[in-house]
Amino acid sequence: MNIGIDKIGFAAPNYVLDLADLAQARNIDPNKFKLGLLQSQMAVAPVTQDIVTLGAQAAQAILSEKDKEQIDMIIVGTESSIDQSKAAAVFIHGLLDINPFARSIEIKEACYGATAGLILAKTHIAQHPNSKVLVIASDIAKYGIASAGEATQGAGAIAMLISADPSILILHNDSVCQTRDIMDFWRPNEDKYPRVNGKFSTEQYTDCLTTTFAEYQKRTGKKLADFAAMCLHIPFSKQGLKGIQAIAQEDSKTLNRLTERFQEAIVYNKIVGNIYTGSIFLSFLSLLENSQSLKAGDNILFYSYGSGAVCELFSGHLVSGYQQHLQPDRLHTLNQRTPLTVEAYEALFFEEIQVDETGQAVDLPVDETDFALVDIQDHKRVYRKK
C-alpha cells in the first residue's frame, strides 16, 4: 500500500521583522545574519496567536469537508505547548469541526515531534486504509531580546494530511533513527526561555546526521546520489547546508546538485525563521513550490533532528501531478506581511498575557485573524473561529 502526504499547508503570523534592522539595533554586522546564518527575516507572533491558532489556520487551508469526516486522528508535534495536560490537537479538533470519533494527541521531542507524528500516522493508515490522519507541526521559537539565538527566532505551522494513495509524496519503508541522551538544548519548566549550548548542539546535529546516514546506507544500500534533493531540519538555514556538505563532501557532483536544490528548499525558511517541529516540512514545501527541476518519481531524503536528542532519516518519492496540489503564489503572500520596527517587534513578540486573581485575562488585544485567542476565563483559554 502506498501511504504518504496527500495535502500540505502552511500558516505564519502576519508580522515580520527584517534582520537587517535587528542587526543595526544590536550593533551587529548584517552579514552575520544574512550570510552567517542564511536568514533574512523573522515571523513574529502576537500574544493572541499560538500553536493552536497557527495550526488550525494551516489545516483549514487544505481540508475539505469530506477530509474532516474521514480524519480519525489528529497529531500535533510541538515544543511550544500552551497546556501541560490538554493537547493542542484537542483545541484544533474543535475549531475545525472534525469528525468527533477521532483520536487527538500531542507529541513532544524538541524539533523531532512532528516527524514522530508522521511515522505514527503512516502506521495507522497501514492498519486502517480508508482513514486519514492530520499531522500538524506548530511552534513559536522565542529566545529573548538580544539573546544569542534572537536572529533565529520564528513562528508558524505546517499541516499535512496523511492518507493511502497520496497526491504529493509516497513515504518509503526505510526509516533509521538514533537517540542520544545529551543536553544541547532544553527548556526547564521554571525558565521562560530555552537553554542552549549552541556550539555543542550544532556539532551534535552534524554528527547525528553523519552516523545515522552511515547506518542508513548499511541497512538500505542507498547512496546520496540516488536522491534528487534533501530536506533537513532548519534551525537556521546555514546549519542545513553544513549538514549536506558533511555527508556529500566526497561526491562533488552530488554535492553541487543537492546544494542547488537546498537553495530552493530554504526560500521560505529564510524569511520565516525557525519553527522547530515544522522547519523540515516548511523546507520540503519550499522545495516543492520553488524548484523547477523536480519531477514525478524523484526521491527525496529527509533528516529530522530534535535536540536532546532524537534524529531520523527517511525518504519518499514524488507523485505524478503533485504540482497541482501546491500554492505557487505563497512567496507573494509572505511578502505581504506587516513589517515591524525593532521597537514594535520587542513589544509584540515578548508581550505576556496578564491574568487576574480569578484567572481572567486582562486587556487581551483584539485579533481579527481567522483563528485567535480571544479570552482566558477561569484559567481556560478561549479561541474564536471567524
Automatic annotation (TrEMBL):
GO BP term, example: acetyl-CoA metabolic process
Residue span(s) of domain Hydroxymethylglutaryl-coenzyme A synthase C-terminal: 179-253, 258-341
Pfam families: HMG_CoA_synt_C, HMG_CoA_synt_N
EC nos: 2.3.3.10
SUPFAM superfamilies in UniProt: Thiolase-like (SSF53901)
InterPro entries tied to this protein: HMG_CoA_synt_C_dom (IPR013746), HMG_CoA_synth_N (IPR013528), HMG_CoA_synthase_prok (IPR011554), Thiolase-like (IPR016039)
Active site annotation, chain numbering: 79 (proton donor/acceptor), 111 (acyl-thioester intermediate), 233 (proton donor/acceptor)
Family stated for the protein in its record: Belongs to the thiolase-like superfamily. HMG-CoA synthase family.
Protein name (record): Hydroxymethylglutaryl-CoA synthase
Organism: Streptococcus minor
Lineage summary: Bacteria, Bacillati, Bacillota, Bacilli, Lactobacillales
